[in-house]
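Appendix C reproduces, verbatim, an entry submitted by the partner laboratory led by Prof. M.T., so that reviewers can inspect both the input and the predicted structure.
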Amino acid sequence: MRIGLLTEGGYPYVSGDARLWCDRLVRGLGQHEFDIYALSRTERQEDEGWVQLPPHVGRVRTAPLWTTRSDGAVYGRRARRRFAEAYGELAAAVCGGPEAAGAEVSGNASDSVGVEADRFASALYGLAELARDEAGLIGALRSESAVRALEGACRAPGALRTARAARVPDLLTVAAHIERVLRPLSLDWYEDDGLGSVDLCHAAAGGAAALPGLLARHFFGVPLLVTEYGVQLRAHYLAAATLEEAPAVRALLAAFHGGLAAEVYRAAALITPGNTHARRWQERCGADRAKLRTVYPGMEAARFADVGEGAAGSRCADPDTLVWVGRIEPAKDLISLLHSFAEIRKEEPKTRLRIVGAPADGPDGATYLAHCRALAAQLFPDEAEGVHAVGDNPVSFEEIGGPEVPNLAEAYASGALIVLSSVVEGFPISLVEAMFCGRATVSTDVGAVVEVIGGTGLVVPPRNPRALAEACVALLRDPERRERLGAAARARALELFTVEQNVTAFHGIYLEIVSHAPVRRVLVDDEGEPLPFGVPAEAHVPGCWTETRLMAAGRPRWAEGAPVRATPPAPVPMPMPVSVGEGA
């Protein structure tokens, strides 16, 4: 079958989100053909280029989200009216609270939420149809009419209390953000030879990445699969909390992203969260539990085999060394880790801490790293065994690729215990890598940590340096327990988190979706003749998934009741024989 893989800020670019697992998925499913539809986030990302693509990638189409040119579309009177109606409905859905919806329908709160969701979806598809008919929507989304529609919705009766306080600069900020997210609506991907030619759209994230999949489903009936290893709506909430925006801006953008997430979850045939933590978030954001299939990220175990299969297990490492691996940023809470290490040194003076990783992109990452270095120098002055010896700090900051840490496996191999101190975490990749290496771990109870670790490591509350120190000391003093936990951790990782299990899971999900909702089309060759095997065979595979299912409540009247058999054709009456004497 042909898969349309939809990405934002990642694959096929060299850097970005979801790059590795997308590449492993595409290479692992060589029996299918892939078309890549990628949205880039920065100019730097585009300049870095693509990864080497396998031969069964048929085409790659890209578009920038970081900049855009005016589409030059000049709307006539009718088009301007259509835009005003559609964008006005979108603004009303974003600015209107439950009380606004309750004014239109009678019922409980869930009915009000459903009305707002329907209004958001209707407005979104109305804008998409306008963009398709008028060859673009960018100029209209930037126009004064869009800002006026937002202002009118904020001042309307029943609007959110926070939205009523929005000023003109706030409305301009909100309008600019909505225009950026809705840029995929103006792309030329929605044609019969584009997304209309695929059998399944697989969005590697929610939000803007899933928008082309929504439109492919709307225009062509192509089923949509959404994978979220980090829930986009949750990421927006976390990012908004750190921005110095007005309350009205935060409220309106939260409502917009909430409406988009609800429509993505409603339209998706299946949703594949990467862990139970993400699954709970998706359910709270409106995802139907029946559509959810948890698929853990697949990681390459072979690169850690030499360390994990070592003859002595964790005993081959330095028994007095703790290792932290990751991206240095405030969410990792290295400050608590350093204070915890000060407590550990009181109990085990020979212990050392190796912090391996690079700062996060941007000035905040570099500033946080400098703060951590300064704290380490303050807590642990350089120590020397004698007056003629050179002092040494028990805390070291290193990066992968240096002389002492040439690769990631060597980083985990250098210590007997791996530590994670995060206060915010999605799927803890560093913990899985440590498990592949057969290392015991001490982690904070955030995100999917408990789900990943199972019973193969120690878990403590976040922002609790004393608890983290006590757990580390307990394992430092018990090498046999460390070895047992490390062996169990490697066995668990090989069972749940390999590339093979990830690829197998998605292969089965692809077959299930195409069997449920095959795209009904007739494909022809260059001469206009029907193309043999144009429709994937999975669409015709008999099985329990192809059985007729009852429609959900609220189906139209013509769909109610038992199916009616077609009326058999009436027999053709035979001419009656006429006697000779009956003519008179």
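Residues 98-109, 542-570, 577-584 have pLDDT under 50 and may be disordered. Additional entries are available on request from the coordinating office.
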